[in-house]
């Protein structure tokens, strides 16, 4: 995501090594059921539809 890259550019290198979609999805799925994931036409952003587990 270009905006994330821009925001993280001012942070020390390596401060957020796990800032990746697969890590986000894994953490999200701990508490939510991911119903749908859509990559926008730009190819740089993803939208998620998720509902709480339980």
Uncertain residue ranges: none
Cα gyration radius (Å)? 13 Å
Percent strand equals 25-35%
Supply the number of helical segments.
2
Separation, N- and C-terminal Cα atoms: 31 Å
Report the strand count.
Answer: 2
Major sheet details: 2 strands, antiparallel
Helix coverage percent of residues? 25-40%
State the secondary-structure class. alpha+beta
Q: How many discrete domains? A: 1
Strand order of the largest sheet: 1-2
Q: Helix and strand string, N-terminal first?
A: HHEE
Tell me the overall shape.
flat
Please explain how this structure is put together:
There is one protein chain. The protein has helices spanning 2-8, 21-31; strands at residues 32-39, 46-52. It is an alpha+beta fold and 54 residues long. The protein has one domain. It is flat, with a radius of gyration of 13 Å. The protein starts with a helix and ends with a strand.
